[in-house]
Amino acid sequence: MGKIAALLAICLTMGPSYSLPQQSPNRDFRVAISVSPFTEEVFHGGITFTDALITATNPVELQKLFVSHGANEVYARIGTRQVYQKGAGDHSMDRGLDRARMAKSLGLPFNPELGLFNIYGDVRCQPAPDFTDYPQIKLPADWNMLTLPQMLDALRAYGAAAARQILDTRVRVRIWDLGNEVEFGVAGVAVPPMPGGCDDTAGGPDWYKPPDGVDPAIGRISAAALMNMPMDKRIAWLEAHIWPSEAKMLAAVADGIRSVDPQARFSTHVSGITSVLPDQAVAFFGAMKRGGFFVDECGVSYYPTSSSNPRDRLQAFKDMAQSVQKATGRPVFIAEFGYPAAQMHGIFSWNDAVKDYPLTPEGQSNFIRDLVAWGAKTGVISSIRPWAPDLAAPGWGPMSFFAHDAASTKKIVVARPALDAIPNGLHSATKSN
């Protein structure tokens, strides 16, 4: 989610009170309603969160509130820099360790996503890792000029070092996610970015350096040109130039993590583009397996209202998820998700409502409930991770699980019905089984 930090103009405040809540009705289903990379900025803006019974004025209190509505793990996206650098939210290792300690203190498992980028990356852009803060990782040349074996050595060492820091907090990691929306590449071995992709975090418009040490063909085709290819030709190109190297890179990170956590389980995830393209999703996860990276869960970002193509994006998503599960024998993990409760504006004008689910608080809640109920009942979906459920700010606000209290003169945000939608969907699935 590129430039959300720039939207943090507004937010909230609250008092103490609660109880650590009931477990999710399906304990194997991961419910990652988690504080976001923007939470501290939100609280610094004086915001308070409430569900009418519980109030939260700091990240720990807010995570407790989420637990009272079914959350059963804490999530953090983590770049390769130790300390926060300018960018779209705080994805530093230091912030990730804060989240790990929070999870440990609340008795929750931790779900780290090691992005393998310097500060931030997604399907629009995949900057190279920056190992400045890992002096034990010595590169013989600039990252883009390294051969694949040289990259694998560095990534293996990084996986071990990152896992060691995280597990030193004594938190339990249920699954390790590697990369963020990686179907067009990861860790700098990726096609040139979409216009504006990562310019604000990677050093301006000329930041991209093609990974010529791996494959000079990669830097010669833009993401836009790739997307304009017919599906079969796009998959063939990715299978020839990106996915074999990417699978080895992700496997190297996994090897490093396993040297510290021998029982580690893994996921990676593709973007919302691929979440409605069954053939592309199946081809991607198949290529990862052939290249030596074996996932326990197949992750996707899914934003149902972000486009009108295909026309029925809910059915397209279900087709993709069922196809991937059938092909891999692994469930699908919704790694990023949002459905708006109102019209969105600005850079996230994602307003193509799904039939029968209007852009209202009730429509938002009903969509999430029904999606989770379907996924849990069929066994196709293993987890859902709403993106930034606490970001009740301009631009992203309609996706949030909270809305500003219009009746109050204070900076208070009040829970929408969506806060209970995931546990309600799980209860519905349990009753119907």
Distance from N terminus to C terminus (CA atoms, Å) equals: 36 Å
DSSP summary, beta strand count: 14
Q: What is the gyration radius calculated from CA atoms? A: 20 Å
User: What low-confidence regions span 5 or more consecutive residues with pLDDT below 50?
Assistant: 1-25
Q: Kindly identify the CATH topology.
A: TIM Barrel
Task: Please bin the fraction of helical residues.
Answer: 25-40%
The first-level CATH class is given as: Alpha Beta
Please state the overall shape, judged from the principal axes of the Cα atoms: globular
Instruction: Provide the number of structural domains.
Output: 1
The pLDDT mean sits at 92
Main beta-sheet strand count, sense and barrel state: 8 strands, parallel
Strand order of the largest sheet: 1-12-11-10-9-6-5-4
Alpha-beta content class: alpha/beta
